[in-house]
TrEMBL record:
<feature type="domain" description="Toprim">
    <location>
        <begin position="81"/>
        <end position="176"/>
    </location>
</feature>
<keyword id="KW-0863">Zinc-finger</keyword>
<dbReference type="Pfam" id="PF02132">
    <property type="entry name" value="RecR_ZnF"/>
</dbReference>
<feature type="zinc finger region" description="C4-type">
    <location>
        <begin position="58"/>
        <end position="73"/>
    </location>
</feature>
<dbReference type="Pfam" id="PF21176">
    <property type="entry name" value="RecR_HhH"/>
</dbReference>
<keyword id="KW-0479">Metal-binding</keyword>
<dbReference type="Pfam" id="PF13662">
    <property type="entry name" value="Toprim_4"/>
</dbReference>
<keyword id="KW-0227">DNA damage</keyword>
<comment type="similarity">
    <text>Belongs to the RecR family.</text>
</comment>
<comment type="function">
    <text>May play a role in DNA repair. It seems to be involved in an RecBC-independent recombinational process of DNA repair. It may act with RecF and RecO.</text>
</comment>
<dbReference type="InterPro" id="IPR006171">
    <property type="entry name" value="TOPRIM_dom"/>
</dbReference>
<dbReference type="InterPro" id="IPR034137">
    <property type="entry name" value="TOPRIM_RecR"/>
</dbReference>
<dbReference type="Pfam" id="PF21175">
    <property type="entry name" value="RecR_C"/>
</dbReference>
<dbReference type="InterPro" id="IPR015967">
    <property type="entry name" value="Rcmb_RecR_Znf"/>
</dbReference>
<dbReference type="InterPro" id="IPR023627">
    <property type="entry name" value="Rcmb_RecR"/>
</dbReference>
<protein>
    <recommendedName>
        <fullName>Recombination protein RecR</fullName>
    </recommendedName>
</protein>
<keyword id="KW-0234">DNA repair</keyword>
């Protein structure tokens, strides 16, 4: 692709680094910004810069937050004896949209994937174990995508957590194998949370 401007080329190259964005889409986005008011583009730039520089991760659950402890973990209305383990913030948002869950979360920050060089040490597993040692947790729900990586992660976590006197469950498999949690419709996901089953039962 030939560019009439080095500034344009550099901007397109940066946008093209975003997931799912090719050069043509990146060019369309950059040209869109060029057609907006300078103040609007500056506001966009400031929002992205502020996001990257000021965003925090909850000390308790590792969810993205504006504060050291996220609103969910800080809420006295939530059931802190119930922890839902998810891959990332997108899954927290998906489950919250169902309005079927009132516990708290634990964001792993990924899934075990040997092919991608991601092992248990790369995830927030140890902090989950520490939460179970310190708090009066009664149940942990595994709400991970129905993929090989998701099942591998659940199997590993179950081995780490079965030492605790708690219920360990997994969301019901109304979700097709290979399905990513964030793309599941709210009704199906909500039903999967409500009709969760003991993890041992899901192995049979």
């Amino acid at each position: 692709m030939n560019f009439s401007s080095k500034l344009l080329e550099d901007a397109v190259a940066e946008f093209a680094k975003l997931p799912g964005v090719g050069q043509k889409t990146a060019l369309r986005l950059v040209l869109h910004l060029l057609n907006r008011d300078k103040e609007e583009v500056q506001k966009f730039s400031n929002a992205v810069s502020k996001l990257r520089n000021e965003i925090q991760f909850c000390q308790s659950c590792h969810n993205i937050s504006d504060l050291k402890v996220c609103e969910i973990c800080a809420s006295h209305k939530r059931d802190h004896s119930l922890i839902c383990v998810v891959e990332d913030t997108r899954d927290v948002m998906a489950i919250e949209n169902t309005n079927q869950y009132n516990g708290v979360y634990h964001v792993l920050g990924g899934l075990i994937s040997p092919m991608d060089g991601i092992g248990p040490g790369d995830l927030q597993v140890d902090t989950l174990v520490e939460r179970l040692k310190e708090n009066g947790v009664k149940e942990v729900i595994f709400a991970l995508s129905a993929t090989m990586e998701g099942d591998t992660t659940i199997f590993y976590l179950h081995k780490r957590l079965k030492q605790f006197a708690i219920n360990i469950s997994t969301i019901a498999r109304g979700i097709a194998f290979g399905g990513e949690l964030e793309y599941v419709d709210e009704i199906t996901l909500g039903r999967s949370i409500v009709t969760r089953v003991p993890y041992e039962n899901s192995l049979s």
